[in-house]
Design goal:
disordered N terminus, 4 helices, 222 residues, globular, twelve-stranded mixed beta sheet, alpha+beta
């Protein structure tokens, strides 16, 4: 159950990823497991670094398909190569598909709310076993470019699960999302800031003095 939640947590966060040149995106995340606080996404080309507080960083390399989890307190890192990531995503995608009951889409509620100073329209997520609500800003700065880049990120093989859990046609920028996996199990993400910044390629690798960890056995597709 915890592994399923962690995969869904990453998917929920990535569902609002955007890409310009180099980009820093900050989201506020709240969930039932206590993984609360700000999540920073640093994006350069097809590489994404996700910093969850100061303890853990996750680097996704779109070119190779690999994922590196960096544990700063232990000064260690764990690498999943592209083939292993694909195997894991196939399992997750099959589980996600089994929980859908039609086309995943957003249905307007006719309600609106101001989030972080921006007017948003509220939509309900339908077609999935999960309950979900999206707060969509239709006038977000550079919104069209963000949406085009969002699709590029979702099309990466490693993000297949996020793509399968996300509606295909989102009419704006998701400023806030709320996904209820089960009663009492909820993930809420809120977009805090988006800014362009010249990022050092070195941050998309584990520090040289960190030690590699052994990869545990991966689950198999049922």
């Amino acid at each position: 159950m915890k592994k399923r939640f962690l995969l869904s947590f990453v998917a929920a966060v990535l569902s609002t990823v955007a890409l310009y040149a180099d980009l820093v995106l900050v989201q506020k995340v709240d969930n039932h497991l206590g993984m609360n606080g700000e999540v920073s996404l640093k994006i350069k080309g097809d590489s994404i670094r996700m910093d969850m507080g100061s303890d853990v960083s996750v680097v996704l390399d779109g070119a190779s398909g690999s994922i590196v989890s960096i544990m700063h307190a232990q000064k260690a890192y764990l690498t999943m190569d592209g083939a292993t990531v694909q195997q894991l995503m196939n399992v997750a995608a099959a589980q996600a598909k089994a929980q859908t009951n039609g086309e995943i889409k957003l249905v307007p509620t006719g309600k609106s709310e101001v989030i972080n100073g921006r007017k948003t329209d509220i939509y309900n997520l339908e077609g999935h076993a999960f309950k979900g609500t999206y707060w969509i800003a239709k006038d977000y700065p550079n919104g069209a470019a963000i949406q085009a880049a969002l699709k590029k990120i979702q099309d990466l093989p490693m993000n297949k699960m996020a793509a399968d859990l996300t509606p295909k046609d989102i009419p704006g920028i998701p400023v806030k999302t709320e996904i209820e996996l089960a009663p009492g199990q909820k993930i809420t993400t809120e977009l805090v800031s988006v800014k362009e910044e010249n990022l050092d390629p070195a941050i998309f690798k584990a520090p040289a003095d960190y030690k590699p960890m052994q990869m545990p056995a991966m689950p198999t597709q049922q």
